[in-house]
Amino acid sequence: xxxxxxxxxxxxxxQDQRLHFRCEFEISREDKxxxxxxxLEEAQRWVLSKQRGDTKGLGGAWFRDNGRWISPLSQRVRxxxxxxKDDAGNQFWAMRYEHPDxxxxxxxxxxxxxxxxxxxxxxxxxxVVFSMQVSHYxxxxxxxxxxxxxxxxxxxxxxKLFQAAGLVTYAGSQPLTARENEVTPDDAELLVERIxxxxxxxxxxxxxxxxxxGDAVLDSNDLAWKLAGLAPVYVAESNWLDKETExxxxxxxxCWNGRIRVYLPGVQFDRPNDYRRHRYFTADEVRRxxxxxxxxxxxxxxxxxxxxxxxxxxxxxxxVRLKKQEQEFSRLKNKLATAPPAEMMELLESINKELDHKxxxxxxxxxxxxxxxxxxxxxxxxxxxxxKGLRYQExxxxxxxxxxxxxxxxxxxxxxxxxxxxDLPESILECCRFFSSAFPDRVxxxxxxxxSAGRSDFPKVNAVWTALWxxxxxxxxxxxxxxxxxxxxxxxxxxxxxxMSFHEGSQTKGDSRLxxxxxxxFDGESIDITPHVKLQTGNKYFRxxxxxxxxxxxxxxxxCGHLDTAGTSKRK
Length: 572
Description:
Blueprint: E1 2-3, E2 18-29, H1 36-50, E3 67-70, E4 78-85, E5 91-100, E6 113-124, E7 127-138, H2 156-163, E8 167-171, E9 174-175, E10 181-183, H3 188-196, E11 204-207, H4 220-226, E12 233-236, H5 241-248, E13 260-263, E14 280-281, H6 283-289, H7 291-303, H8 317-338, H9 342-420, H10 428-438, E15 443-445, H11 447-455, H12 461-480, H13 488-496, E16 499-501, H14 506-509, H15 512-516, E17 519-522, E18 525-528, E19 532-537, E20 540-549, E21 554-561, H16 566-571
Parallel strand pairs: 1-3, 10-12, 11-12, 15-21
Antiparallel strand pairs: 2-7, 2-8, 3-4, 4-5, 5-6, 6-7, 8-9, 11-13, 13-14, 16-19, 17-18, 19-20, 20-21
Helix pairs in contact: 1-2, 3-5, 10-11, 10-12, 12-13
């Protein structure tokens, strides 16, 4: 099949071809039927969507076998397809899709960058190995600045395969999806098994939660969607999972307290410096650089990663053509074997063995170079991180000097407030207003909190005063300057003698109406005020419901009183 206009032939091998995205995974069907036909159909549908408005001749059956399509409307747009089968009955199919860049056009309106997408399928028993590589190169003779390259992300075809009915995707022993995998403490052993599994053929991302707040510092579903086909994303259900993983992993492989870690395949605990391959980002680094920047770095690093070992029989259309040549060579060899000159057979066998030896040596060298490249890229990233760190330190020092001046000013204001205080406040509302004015850089009350404080009939005003003092001092210090893996609830109780909790009971958490009452608006954003400090005298209960606002570094009190729980709601 050949369609379209005559165009300049695009080279099979080009100089300075740059890898943009590379993934490989296996596909099978839930009903155990061969998935090849369904995957080919998805690939053809994807190409048709890419060439919207320019698809004449592109929807034929030739796409499943071999042929060439040249766009009748656009220059430098072409598709080549070829297929082969070996003596064992294994099938191989590949497509090369070429098109010019959609951005960075020169003054004549033409782009000097060409994009190339290579897709290959290799049958393997009841499954298919899917390989996809997206690369780009500048046309020969280009002179001038290079057009900007967009950040890599998982192509839509990969996501379509993940979402296709009946298809199951995996890389070696590792299942793949385009969604996050939530891990409960009961699943900790399975997570560690996945990390250590020698048959895992792709990286694995683990997102832990911050110990103080129980939050993840980035959107793990967004990360999973952008990494589809490259790596699965596991996210801790709660911060308690840290304790379970730490019991099962060596310290240098830990991922805790809001860190995000990339575990590459082939984890080797007994190999010195192996832990350095498995890069991590701390919660502070994510906040410093921004969640989207960290996601971009992870996706870019894995999208351009060289796969050290491949399960695919072919990687591109050139490999399929080599398969055909091998079949032809085998046919000629068998034909010669019927009545050949002995010297000719010996010569052919010698040439074949020599070529086979060279291929094995080249593969070994390729694997060695890829491993060295992996470490070199890691070192480059570390140097970039050092530069970022130094710039960040410089910025931090300036901000710290400003913060010290502000703290000194706030301390002077506090001293003045306390020196002017003649008697302790006589109501809860007065206590709240005093601490709001004395500690404006630490504790803030919403209007709802002040209104509820004014309605409260809790009799122990002195207990409220003490609780607010420990919130502004003890809790503030624990929340924003936490020690490693400190249990804030226990430490606050030990230092203040006052109970507090970050969570509600399971029945209360399961009631959406009750949990909505633990949501509050602050400066245009919705905040969770589930954490609470507890006071009680007799059958009277009082709670300060608050939110740890990490960006503003303040405690936001959203309600003062006692919100309904599953237990109190039933009694009503």
